[in-house]
Structure formats: C-alpha cells, structure tokens
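Thread title: Can someone regenerate the structure for this chain?

I was given the following input by a collaborator and told the matching structure tokens would be attached. They weren't. Posting the sequence so someone can regenerate them.
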Amino acid sequence: MLIDCGILKGTPGGGESLKNAIKNVVEVTGGKLDVLVVTHEHWDHVSGFLQAQEEFKQLTIGEVWLAWTEQRGNKLADRLRSQKDKAKKAVADASLKLRKLLGTDKQAAASLGALEKLGLFYSDQDQASLGLTAVAQVATPPATAGEAAPESSSSSYSTASAMDWTRLKTGGQVRYLFPGGETIPIPGLEDVRVFVLGPPQNESWLKNDSPSKKEPEVYSLASGHDLGFLAALEKRGGVDGMRPFNPSFELKGKTAKREAFFQQTYFMEADLWRQIELDWLWTAERLALQLDSDTNNTSLVLAIELVSDGKVLLFPGDAQVGNWLSWQELEWTVRNPHGELEKVKAEGLLKQTVLYKVGHHASHNAT
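Best answer:
Regenerated them for you:
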C-alpha cells in the first residue's frame, strides 16, 4: 500500500527525490502495488503522480482508494466541488484586481503577499489559475531543475490532472470510500483490516476548522465562505439577499462623482479614508485560507489495525478539526481475535494507535 505521493512546491531536488522513492517502491514490491491511496487534492500530496510518472508506469496497481468527495455523481460531492470552483474563481478575480492596485495601494501588496504564500500547496499551473502569480500561463518545468516534468503539456501540470491520472491512468480499480460501514480487508493479509474514519458526509463537519468557544481546540480561522465577497465579484452585483442595501438606494460611482455633495465629502484628498470601494478585496486572504482548509478537511482518513494484537496505524492525511470530531459518531461491528463480535469506536482505535502520520505539517488544527 502506498499512501499519497507528493512534495511541497519549491523543495530543492524534490522531483528527483520522488523519482528515486518510486524506483525504490518498484524494487521492494517487485513492481506490484495492491493499493494506492490518495487522501486529498493538494499538490504536496499528489505531485509525484506527474513528477515521477515514468516510474509509476513500472508499477501494476490493484486498487485506487479515494474519498467519496472525489466521486462524480455524488450530489454532496458535486455541490462541494461546485462551491470550491466558485471560490477559486473568486480568489483569482480578486488577485487580478489586487495586482492592478500594486503601486497605488499598500494593502494590495500585503494581501497579494499573503495569498502567494498559499502557493506552496499548489503547482505552478494551479497558482496561475488562482491568480497567485503574475504569469498568465506557466511553462512546463524543465527536468533539469530537479522538478521532473511530466510527459503532458503545461496545461495539465496541475493538481486536478494529477488526481485525474490516479482515477483514469493507473489501471487500478477505483474505490470511493465512505466513513463507517464495513472494514476493508487487505489482499493476502488476513491479520489486517482497515477502518475508514473520514471524510464525514456531514457538510457542517467538513466546514468546521475552527475552535468552539467552549473547547478551543485550534487556532481560529474564518468559518464558512464569505458569501458577500463572492457576491461582490458577480458581474450582476450578486444576489440581492447578499447586498448590504436594497438596489434602489445604490448610487453608481460615476454618478456620485458628478454630485457636489460627494465631491466635497467623499472624493476630496482629505476624505480618502472614507472610501470603501475596495474594502471587500481584503477578504480574499480569508477566502483563500478557507478554501485550503476545506480541501484538507476532505482528507481520506484510514486506521489500519493489526487484528492479532490490536495495534493501529493512523493515517489522517491533512484532516482538520471537523473531520477529527466527526469520528466520534462512528461505530463498527467486528470479530476479535477469539472470533467474537464486538463494537469498535474511533476512541478505541485512537487509544490503540502505535504509529501516527502527523497531519498537515504538524499544524495545530490538523494534529
């Protein structure tokens, strides 16, 4: 079993390291991989499927395990994907507008800088599509730079294309996993079973990456997408229900500039502090962070139990607090080493954990 294959963007020699790692996997496994697990759609977890694609072709893959959130035709998964696409477009539009303000607005540079830091979790092509770089189209990175180039064009050198490759090009049978339900056996290993803990199928858990006031488990981020921000980017001005005022009270900027009252109280040099036309743009940072967090919370989470002694290996991907808290709702009925049926809950699996893959670079709200 191989769980994810990627490296943080900008890591020196990262592409070459991934190629060497997969060469080793081929050698150790004899070229046969029973299961390939892909936890979630972030570049640092999937880049290797493109950067070491030639090496992966030397592997015969039995099954590909993905979270249910990647399943096309699943109503909730499709809705979440649509929301994410809208949020990506909003961030891209805001980034473009912020770039136009560079040199004239100090806060624009600060906001763009914060957005670009998120680029570590995206490929060059992803950054361009999100407006996180000034380059409209990114060339395929040269193989000599330590970031091995894929065989495909630059337009497919993206997180989405890496995910598509795992679904469509590995030759393995794709399984979409849901939390709870039956445990999953590993072929040829009767003493091993896999519990699926996440991602939750409850949207409120998926959106939860902030602490509660009663139990402040993690640092605070904005909760939920800023609908007002999305509305501000709509060509028609957004949905009326999201507007701060009824359209009948609105005054176009060009019209206001012709009226003496606004000329004297709003557009004078001394009154610049009153102007709020661009204030909505500063929400872009929060939306981008939320987009990143929501993707982490869709991580496929697996607990692998060695049945004979009850030891558990926990692989949470980058699951954040909502994903973790949802596990308390799960329960499985399994047979113990004596053949007797017993109930198992996530709390018990956590108590038996002897190996824990640290979540999201040890960030507070994912570990």
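The chain is about 35% helix and 15% strand.
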